[in-house]
Amino acid sequence: MRRTDLVVRPDGVLAASGYLTCQGADLVRGTAASLRSGGCTRVVVDLRGVRAADAAGLAVLQQLRRELAADGCELVVRGAPTRAEGVGFEPTMGVTP
Questions:
Q1: What are phi and psi of 82, to 5 degrees?
Q2: Is the pLDDT of residue 39 over 80?
Q3: In what order do the strands lie in the sheet with 42-53?
Q4: Sign of the CA dihedral 71, 33, 88, 95?
Q5: Engineered SS bond to 84: which of 3, 33, 62, 80, CB 3.0-4.6 Å?
Q6: What is the average per-residue pLDDT within 41-57?
Q7: Which residues are bridge partners to 6 per DSSP?
Q8: Is the pLDDT higher at 94 or at 18?
Q9: Are 35 and 63 in contact (CB under 8 A)?
Q10: pLDDT above 60 (res 97)
């Protein structure tokens, strides 16, 4: 079974590792919703530790981006796996130095 691990770092970034499946992305979604309900206006998800992502996992992140935007919150995805490029998650999308 492919697994996604998720850690909320002290700086508030959600760091995912392993394989981003639908279930793993749903874990990201739930954690992001908790941050949003706590007043967060920008959710940063770091995917540099993700080895691969399936289409269903990426679709969940796309939906999360739309949901957060509708609520006035920004979703920033860092280090998207190569498979994610071209579907709205470029490696450093939304990140400023």
A1: -50, -40
A2: yes
A3: 4-8, 14-20, 42-53, 74-78
A4: positive
A5: 80
A6: 91
A7: 16
A8: 18
A9: no
A10: no
Question: Which whole-number Å values give the CA distances from 82 to 18, 35, 51, 86, in the listed order?
Answer: 14, 27, 10, 9
Phi and psi torsions of 44, nearest 5°: -110, 125
Tokens 């998800």 sit at which residue? 45
Which helix (H) or strand (E) segment is 65 a member of? helix 55-70
3-state secondary structure of 57: helix
Closest by Cα among 87, 16, 34, 82 to 58: 87
In the chain the domains, ranked by start, together with CATH numbers, are: 4-84 (3.30.750.24)
Polymer length of the chain: 97
Lookup: tokens for 24? 């793993």
Cβ neighbours for 77, distance < 8 A, ≥ 6 positions apart: 45, 47, 61, 65, 84, 89, 93, 94
